[in-house]
Amino acid sequence: MTMQSARLTASMLVLALLTLAVGGCATLGRQPHPRLPATAAYPQGQDVVLLLPAGAEGRLGAAIDAIESGYAAALRRDAGYRREPITEDTSGDALAAYEAAAEMAPPALIIGPLLKRNVNAIAAARSAPTPPMLALNAATQSRPGMYQFALAPEHEASTAAQLINDLSGSRTGAITTAIVYPRTDAWGERMRKAFVAALDAAPAVEVPYTMDDVGTLRDRVSGADLVFMVARPDDAAAVYTGLGGGAGVPVIATSHAADSKVDAAEKVGLFYVDVPWLVDRALAREYIARSTDKPDADYTKGELGRLYAMGIDAYYLGALVAKMRAGGGRPIDLPAGMTGDLSFSTSGRLLRRQLALGRIGEGGVTHPAAVRDLAVALKRRGTAQAGNATGKG
Predict the structure, then answer these.
(1) What is the per-residue pLDDT across 137-178, written as a single tens digit (0 to 9) for each?
(2) Would you give the DSSP letter of residue 51?
(3) In which element (H, E) is residue 389 found?
(4) What are phi and psi of 334, to 5 degrees?
(5) Which is nearest to 88 in space by CA: 131, 143, 127?
(6) What domains can you pick out in the chain, each with its CATH number?
(7) What is the C-alpha end-to-end distance of the chain, expressed in Å?
């Protein structure tokens, strides 16, 4: 081989490697996520209109950015659909924005609005099943062709109850449960009602508390095998400690317990329910790392993380809603969504949002857990109680 041909061969090799590298980068953000299909399979030529407020600031602005970023990330990953959404501004007259979107021909899929008052206004005015619509909140009434996707905190309570139901069905002997929740707190009362309604067997003990009497909680739930704990983020560590912490009865909490890093060392061993996106943060980080557009905010934690996940799920749910035939609704399911396993009725109501179970480890680091981990904790608790009884005898 001559020197010139050797140089030419080397140059071609470098070019080939560069082409492969660039091609790899181009497809990096298009890889399917383990929980989601490779494509949402939108109908050919389907237009999407997002009903969201433009120029929102503060918490609302951050929430809108998170939802739009999640939606955009899902769109960029879809190998079979590349139509950018049209945005109609709802910061003024949301109903007028909806009517403008509804007049498009052929009918566009409408996603939004987010604010409950705007969803209610549109639901009150809507009578026809077209255009298909995915609202990002729940209305006080159902409307044909209007699916209502909301991240209600009560879903956490019902998921905790379902986990206990599943555990009860996998073992012999009944499981006695207790719920502790903040006294004179409307949110705590809603969570209590949702938990009790979803539990197969009524709780043995219901304990409202104030932060002045959390030290008595361990004695007040002593007859329970498992406890569902409702607590505000900054109170979670104190309430969990009042229940005995890692040495006490196994405790399942709401996502608020994992949101705050306050006194993280005192929450080791605590189970909690949250959206799959935040329970398995390694998958969330991998998803964002593979996205072509890197967000400025950290969407792997907290409320903004949940809203980012909502944007991802809204993209996939939108495709299912868009396929709905005019003249009547049908049930739709997204069994592995980032915000949970989702099921909607023919009327568009969200029937079920099954969340994921996590556990807080050393240093406040969270990781996924399963019903079997609850079973192990329950067995250890029973063994410890038996040992204490033997010692006293």
Answers:
(1) 999 998 888 999 999 999 999 999 999 999 988 776 678 999
(2) E
(3) helix 371-392
(4) -125, 90
(5) 131
(6) 48-151+281-353 (3.40.50.2300), 154-274+356-392 (3.40.50.2300)
(7) 91
